[in-house]
Batch of 4 targets.
Target 1
Amino acid sequence: MTTSTPLPDFSHGAAYTRGRFVPIDGASIPITDWGFLRSDAAYDVVTVWDGAFFRLDAHLERFAASCRRFRLDPGIDDARIAQVLAECVRLSGLRRAYVEMIVTRGQPPWGSRDPRQAVNQFHAFAVPYVWIANEEQRARGLHLHLSGVPRIPSASVDARAKNYHWADLTQGLLEALDAGYDTVALGDGTGNVVEGPGFNVFCVNATGTIVTPASGVLEGVTRRTVIEIAAQLGMAVETRPLPATELRAAREVFLSTSAGGVLPITRVDGQPVGDGRIGRVTQQLIDTYWAWHQDPRYCTPVDYDTV
Ligand code: PLP
């Protein structure tokens, strides 16, 4: 009688950790890794849309910069990272995926608390595409709350390095959800809006200029895409501090994120933005954002056949 080992089930997604590809449901990291114990990690998220990575180079570049800022080393070069990500996608078979690359601090030898002695660990995974807003929210526009919880200052944790210091964002999100809003944006503690859980914030102000915060934020790849699209469409963009008062008086407000692209906001703290409907500029940016997903300049196709 022959017994056969069941094949691993990658249908929910695939992960790479400790040098091996495993189904996402069974993927784990050691409990003593400082990535878990101290949020001591850098990460990035790239998406796959219709079988191709969108702006993979920009994500790899930002990931390398985040690692440098936190003195973390993935231990492999960009070409190998790209291979591992593609293999996670290939194994999962997903045509639309949310693909994360992570470096955790690892752990120093027992008895040592010196982070320089830790061996950093590279991990990655691919799961089905994640939307920050569901279909109904995208169709009507999200209702945003401006929280009183200030974002962790960049002087403490550099917001340009993509990180898991999310206690402030999560606290703000809980506050917003409890009050019946869809999501939240945090401020810098001096009256300016910065960013929210997983997205950058933009407005089209009362004079028609697109404004997004210049600092204290992750420099989102979608934010960069929006700025480039706006330039192509001849729309004026300013990156500078964005006062909450300017956002509240804006004609249009929208978010940018790899988890959904350009997401319209139609209410801020219960008050309609403009006429309360998705604005013309926002709609043009949404349409062009998705059109760019078919543009070979920004796409890296995944080879689903290679073993
Ligand atoms: N700001 C924060 C705090 C984020 O976590 C993210 C993405 O996860 C963003 C902004 C948007 O960045 P991107 O457009 O690269 O997804």
Target 2
Amino acid sequence: MVMYLDGKAYFLDYRETAPAAADKDMYLDDEGNVIEGASTLGHLASGVPGSVAGLWAAHQRFGKLAWRDVVAPAIKLARDGYVVDAKQMIEFDYGAREFAGKTNFAKYFGDVQENQRLVQPELAETLQRIAARGRDGFYGGKTADMIVAEMARGNGLITLDDLENYQAKWRAPLRADWRGMEILAAPPPSSGGFAVIQLLKIKDLLAKDFEGVPLNSAQYVHLVAEIEKRVFADRAEYLGDPDYVDVPMERLLSDEYLKKRAREIDPEHIAELGDVSPGLESMETTHYSIVDFDGNAVSTTTTLNLSFGSGVVVEGAGFLLNNEMDDFSVKPGVPNAFGVVGNTANEIQPGKRMLSSMSPTIITKDGKVDFVSGTPGGSTIFTTVFQMIVDSYDFGMTATAAAGAPRFHHQLLQPDVVTYSPSVPLPEATISALSDRGYRAIPHSFDYGDVQTIRRIPGGWDAGTDPRGRGESRVIEQPDTLQGTTQ
Ligand code: DON
């Protein structure tokens, strides 16, 4: 969660952690091969949850309403239910197939039907415990006991100690000057902020190469893909939990280093894997963006990792557990569910946070919030946020137009593959021109991105939501009762 409140920037890290009993080889068989599905499905796939501790910490420090009142709408939704729409039904059908016979998913969600109300009474009770006891309603007492009992049913690792010891952490957000504005972004254990900043700055260093190049033309895709290649190479080598590894962030974002990276890029040719080294020597996530009447902003991305996490529901408590453990590098060079690789910086260690790509981002101009954005999408998150910023600032798109624009993605492996979101493809001419240049431009394996963006416009705010997702954006007129209290 990136925040900009009363002119000050904050970052709250409530990423999951590896349980104390986790081990760097925990997903490998006796021969050292990765056990298919072990880090994505079932009890072993869960990190120690962070969301409740995070929201509690944010509320403790900055909340204005009573905690109970803040949790109340969630209790109501769980107790009274909500109607499942077509897009979400596709997810439930996928979950039913994926987890059939492997987890207790069907017991909880097997009867879900499109246009029918989904009621979750156990979840309502869990939320009630959280409403009554705050953080302790989840990490202690009945809920914690139920999580531990659930772990026992499936050889999971999370213990009462793991739950009690979990801490959300206030960290300094990454800050970078960009065209006279300031970017506020997610620091490690997310790679998102690092990546958005590298992408934007290297693009500016290549301004001559980008001059006159139309948005989403083959040349544009090539230049951006080559930048993305370098970003993913650095991500794989250097990024990980800063409490466990020294991330050389200053060097990775220094002007000198970025200039060197920009110089490596050949505007004509696709770099092969062997030519791209880390640069220094030697489905479903949620994002919300908010600006309040006082001009304060919050940009938050939150996730179980894949759509229904590990597929395991804590029996009696009614909620799904994450499969964030797959975001660790389970073996050097072996891709995770999003096809990205890592090395020792992101290997599993007890208590360590797994590397993320989440990129909640705020841009300020002259000390005032100018732009707020973020999205789900796994490894496509930071390349999406980068394109949102560039489409808005370079190509003058409204928030809605940028959210709905075609987007593409490149992530080092494979060096000649560029993907685009299936429902809003790149122009045909770009796809065939890319193929002439030796690229394989293909639809991404999922319709990535559900961007929520807010941008300052003369006299107010412009808010845009990604048509690929289920979100909505609203600009609310300031009620009379609050008139005169703002900005
Ligand atoms: O933290 C990360 O980078 C991933 N766990 C995010 C997963 C995600 O966005 C899935 N949604 N499409």
Target 3
Amino acid sequence: MDKNKHKIGTKVIHAGQSPEPITGAVMPPIFTTSTYVQPSPGQHTGFEYTRAQNPTRFALERMVAGLEGSGLSAEQDETNGGFAFASGLAAMATVLELFEAGSRVLAMDDLYGGSGRLFSKVRAHSQALDVVRADLSDADALRANMTADTKLVWVETPTNPMMKIADLGVIAKICKEINPGVVLACDNTFASPINQRPFEYGFDISMHSTTKYLNGHSDAIGGVLITNDAELAQQLRFLQMAVGSVMSPFDAYLVLRGIKTLDVRMARHNETGLKIAGWLETHEQVEKVIYPGLTSYPQHALAKQQMSGFTGMVSFTIKGGLDAAKAMLETVRLFALAESLGGVESLIEHPAIMTHASVPAEMREQLGITDGLIRLSCGIEDADDLIADLDQALAVGARAGVDSGAAAKA
Ligand code: P1T
């Protein structure tokens, strides 16, 4: 039976997995070895050195390939087009290695701060990449910026932290018409493969920071790339080995273990995210809620068509600006004030000061990453307890906002 033909709730347990051949262990052992013995030079079992091949990492790579629906056979690529790296940014950096120095890249305007920084502060300099940023959720802006010499289009959807939705099908159609050879890559971290699978819309690469939903337990940093293109898989396999920023066997084990509950976790994240976003919308201390699952969200129809759930990521602006935001963030008890997202525990953060501090101030303003913007990663605790925590913290935020407003007038 082809395990990759199952529904996603079955795939998270079985995709790409087979019992360990010697003992029959149903879970892959952690192969903590750097190297493998050879009876004669060049004679080996297919495993030479862990940077190139490791059975635990391979098990995870085959799993994520199955979840994203890469469709590549073992003959086309040993791990069906899945590749695991030491971090999400290491995975992204390996994609950039596909392109010659000076290549033109078209990227979404709103991205995780570190992804934008990798483009503008590292690769624009070391690889002379010509990185053009535009609002790719707007088809006119896409048409205006896509050119025949653009080698890579990089999108996040939903974006971090403004939750913009890029229409993957429209982007694929327009970009491939203008340059059939362009590589289309989607950072699918926010959505997770449970809610959205970019290959279904004509994308070539899906990327995840496994640090987030895939691992789900906030105890390991990692990243994966998945491709459905055999030629890209061949190039990425070479680059993963040649550049060497691979995921360790232990981390691969943790992520694989986390993925087993991805489907049930995402169901809860989706439910709680929607409940909390709806509750925030009715709160008098809240100016605006940004959550694609709300019917008030401008791109709700598109989000509904492209995604099967809207995750636990909720952004909102608090009335009273920075003082109110800081007071609220200092007062939460159940939500932890911390960067990152996608774990079982709820996190809260201030993008302008924390995750998106590296975004230039004028770009932050243009994107709406204001001093009052707060981002939630709703975990899988009881939603009523989370709401009660937000409620008491918003009350403290309200008082701080009023006090600072009065002080400013005095
Ligand atoms: O942290 P790392 O595993 O290297 O992943 C980077 C990354 C890539 N893409 C997206 C959409 C991300 O959100 C991240 C990391 N983001 C955070 C740490 C954060 O709090 O937003």
Target 4
Amino acid sequence: MSLPAGSTIGIIGGGQLGRMLAMAAARLGYRTVVLEPQADCPAAQVANRQITAAYDEPAALAELAVVSSVITYEFENVPVGAASALAAKVPVYPPARALEVAQDRVSEKTFLNGISIATADFHAVDNDDELTAALKAFDGSGILKTRRMGYDGKGQRVFRNMETGGFAGTCEAMGNVPLILESFVPFEREISVIAARGLDGAVVAYDPAENVHRNGILHTSTLPAGIRPETAQAARTAASKILSALNYVGVIGVEFFVLADGSLLANEIAPRVHNSGHWTEAACIVSQFEQHIRAIAGLPLGGPDRHSDCVMENLIGDDVLRVPALLTEPDLMLHLYGKAEARPGRKMGHFTRIKAIPGKV
Ligand code: AMP
């Protein structure tokens, strides 16, 4: 049964993703309540109501469960315990199992390998001796990452062709938290697939975007990606396999490295709408945000085809000063997030330039 119009959707997290979900929900006739500790957050500016409290505060979660017919979230670090407790009272999508898998890079890769999706080789690392041994196994090159709570390249250290040994103090410098050493992937490009699974198990996948990062933060997503059709199909198939294996409901983002021979290694799964899917709002009839709301509301999913080629670019920090000039372009869609202060590294908005698909009338 689908969620009747006028029902309330609870959103945990009040950033720009929550904001765009709330806007999509409103267009489908739903109300939204946002749980977020920061007052006047981007999502609350466009939602019906904000519960201003920590994501794991029991009273706030209980209130969210009472007022919502279904609950979703906009970031993957929602405490699994909180999601499971809520799920006992009201449907929570995507399922808590997806959070559990995505929150730890070792569980994530183990899960992916378990369903025959290849990733970079990896070793769990808890101390400097384990780091030395793991680097030795990877001939001195690799990327050391925190297992949990990493985003936008934060909490990472790159080792290239280093003599192994002499890494005393590295784990302490990384905060003495559980780490993972990944083999260094000589990728040719990075792509991501945004896909969705409905309550009825139907799956749709958008075309892969080609992503370029700057300083660990997504800079642009370009459609079409410069990959062969077989590679694009393999990425969509992998995303669909992940959705089914997790008995997922909602939108997921899956990031891949593309190797020189066109084969793929999955890097990360994000159990939510994803920055590399923002282009869908300008170049598809149904955006990733609407697709997510449709999925969790039990509505039929929309088609994933794009009507235009496009390039989405993030506006980070002072990039927002470009807005007046950008707005003079006729084929550009702008989206600002309502953040008052343009701090360095802060995602302030994005824009998408669209152009006709060659040969398409
Ligand atoms: P992540 O936080 O895992 O998304 O990593 C941030 C960025 O670092 C990725 O988008 C890649 O550009 C790069 N990166 C991450 N892991 C690897 C790897 N194992 N080999 C090569 N580059 C990587």
